[in-house]
Amino acid sequence: MGASTFTCRTCGRKTQVGDIIGRRDTCDNCGADLRACVQCRHYDTSYADDCREHQAEPVPDKEKANFCDFYQPAQGGVKETGQAMSKSKAEEEWEKLFGKK
Questions:
Q1: CB burial class (10 A; 0-12, 13-18, 19+) of residue 59?
Q2: Those residues with Cβ within 8 angstroms of residue 30's Cβ, 6 or more apart along the chain or in another chain
Q3: Mean of the per-residue pLDDT values for the chain?
Q4: In degrees rounded to 5, what are phi and psi of residue 2?
Q5: pLDDT at 70 > cutoff 50
Q6: Nearest-CA neighbor of 33 among 5, 55, 54, 61?
C-alpha cells in the first residue's frame, strides 16, 4: 500500500493520501472532506445532480463526505478545473455582485 498526492479542489493544496481515500479523510490545509462530490472526477455542475455518473444516487450536500460507489478522485485542483467552489465562496461572490441580502 503506497501513498499518492491528492490536490484538494476546495483550496488547491496537495495532500498525501493512501491508495484508498476514506470517508473520514480530510485536507491537511482547509479540512475539507476528500471523499465528497466536489472532490470527485464525476462532479460537474452542468449535469443532473451535478454528476456525470448517471447511475449514482443523488447526494444532497456535495461538500460533505459520502458513501458513493462511483467516487474517483479528481485530477488537479481548483486552479486547473475551475469547477469546484464552496458554498461560502459562492455566497461571497454573489454578495460582491449584488450586495447583501
A1: buried
A2: 8, 10, 11, 13
A3: 84
A4: -110, 180
A5: yes
A6: 61
pLDDT at 45 over 60: yes
Amino acid (1-letter code) at residue 78: V
Q: What is the mean pLDDT of residues 12-34?
A: 90
CA 75 remoteness from chain centre: 11
**Residue type for 4, please?**
S
Q: Angle at Cα 19 formed by Cα 44 and Cα 64, nearest 5°? A: 40
Q: How many CB atoms lie within 10 A of CB 32?
A: 21
- Concatenate the DSSP letters of all residues of the chain into one string: ---EEEE-TTT--EEEE-SS--TT-B-TTT--BSSBGGGBTTB-TTSGGGBS-TTSPP-S-TTSB---TT--BPSS-HHHH-----HHHHHHHHHHHH---
pLDDT of residue 85: 61
